[in-house]
């Protein structure tokens, strides 16, 4: 049984501290991916780290964009009843609101899609299920981003 004695070095009780000694060294644990001549460098990229960072940064920007959007659409100037074709036409006449809505569209879609990618990776256990769910997710994401961008830039207030 491992000892739980307190040593004089100031280190508290360490379970199993006396199991390994000079005659019985700790087992050598091999690196999960060995460097070989073919792969002398790490084969992993930093994609997940940038994804993690993107979720935080896009989240901060989205707070401003989405709260501003809700305030303008639902609270100010008579609330939701003012929204109609003329209201949208008036706002998209300004490049400022075009860029605002474009940023909101791109960031929310990429943030939401990357979040769902994580959820799929976490919960779909079979490789085939992950493949199909992510295929569907990426198709819907690209479609929505392209269609929304097209609408923002080709909107015609004089349409009949
Ligand atoms: C309004 C401001 C928002 C903030 C501050 C925010 C923040 C975050 C953060 C920090 C994460 C990462 C959580 C983690 O890694 O554990 C996250 C995940 C996620 N976000 Fe957002 N987000 C916002 C808006 C949105 C919007 C508009 C959508 C949908 C279009 C969305 C969909 C998601 C999804 C699906 C996840 C993954 C959930 C998970 O991993 O469990 N978020 N959000």
TrEMBL record:
InterPro entries attached here? SQR/QFR_C/D, SuccDH_FuR_B_TM-su
Task: Extract the SUPFAM superfamilies matched here.
Answer: Fumarate reductase respiratory complex transmembrane subunits
Give the start-end ranges of region Disordered: 1-42
- Location within or outside the cell: Membrane
| Transmembrane region(s) | 53-76, 96-116, 136-155
The protein, known as:
Succinate dehydrogenase hydrophobic membrane anchor subunit
A Pfam family it matches: Sdh_cyt
Keywords assigned by UniProt, alphabetized: Heme, Iron, Membrane, Metal-binding, Transmembrane, Transmembrane helix
């Amino acid at each position: 049984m491992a000892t739980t004695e307190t040593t004089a070095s100031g280190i508290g009780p360490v379970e199993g501290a006396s199991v390994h000694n000079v005659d019985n060294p700790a087992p050598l644990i091999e690196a999960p991916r060995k460097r070989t001549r073919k792969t002398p460098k790490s084969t992993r990229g930093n994609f997940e780290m940038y994804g993690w960072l993107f979720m935080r940064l896009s989240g901060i920007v989205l707070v401003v964009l989405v709260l501003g959007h809700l305030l303008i659409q639902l609270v100010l100037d008579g609330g939701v009843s003012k929204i109609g074709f003329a209201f949208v036409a008036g706002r998209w006449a300004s490049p400022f609101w075009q860029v605002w809505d474009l940023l909101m569209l791109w960031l929310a879609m990429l943030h939401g899609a990357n979040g769902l990618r994580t959820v799929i990776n976490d919960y779909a256990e079979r490789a085939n299920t992950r493949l199909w769910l992510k295929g569907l997710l990426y198709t819907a994401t690209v479609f929505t981003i392209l269609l929304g961008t097209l609408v923002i830039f080709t909107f015609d207030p004089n349409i009949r």
